[in-house]
């Protein structure tokens, strides 16, 4: 393979050719850089996948977009998925800070669902991008004038404490629960615009309990950690949907912090609303994890059920 713009090659190959090494490891091939060329050796299909991955990554750099290890991993998954007949995943989200492209086939389906359905459930293990992509889609919709405001919410149950017993004012009480939503929002939107949006009410971050009695019109509403809702709370939240609004509900069914025996509102809603027009459910799996590769191995270990019980002593 030959590339015309030598200035882009350091970012394409990665520091000390780490991107090429990653492609080699994932596809079991050899990728040898020689000036502005890369020689690929290995199985015919694996080499074709590697070629397409490099073409796609080079195209990102030509458009001024970033290429990092995550993008390399994502492109390998996407191109390999297409080779297996899993279809296209050419969805993207353009926010004020960056352009976000899917890193797996499921992420592509999820992004398209978020853009075309009024209510989307995104379920699956940690690290699959469920919340981040929902927040990015909401930020893009606000910037494009498709909605007038963003509302981000979470049930505040993880700590096993009632908010009234926690120190500080209400903002100080709920901020720790909502920090992941802040992080995602600041990553896709300039900080000054986030601050302005929070000041004028176009961006609102609040615990689930604050949703009761409201009608949320012309808004993009996201409920994160929804596995920690009860069926009654979930019904309350879903029926807040107003004219011109869209909702995304995300959660990991394997990480429920409700009292033993309690039914998760997320699982209940996904079952009850299956097949309802205007609603989409995208289920992620461990193959969609885009965090550190160790996260995938951790999920594998917990799913295998082969852990030894701790010994007394």
UniProtKB/TrEMBL annotation:
Keyword list, A-Z: ATP-binding, Cytoplasm, Nucleotide-binding
- Where in the numbering of this chain does the PhoH-like protein domain appear? 100-303
Claim: Transit peptide is one of the keywords in the record = no
User: What Pfam families would the database entry show?
Assistant: PhoH
Query: Can you cite an annotated GO cellular component?
Result: cytosol
GO MF annotations for this entry? ATP binding
- Fetch the SUPFAM superfamilies from UniProt: P-loop containing nucleoside triphosphate hydrolases
Q: Report the locations given in the UniProt record.
A: Cytoplasm
Q: What does the similarity note say?
A: Belongs to the PhoH family.
Annotated protein name in UniProt:
PhoH-like protein
Source species taxonomy = Bacteria, Pseudomonadati, Pseudomonadota, Alphaproteobacteria, Hyphomicrobiales
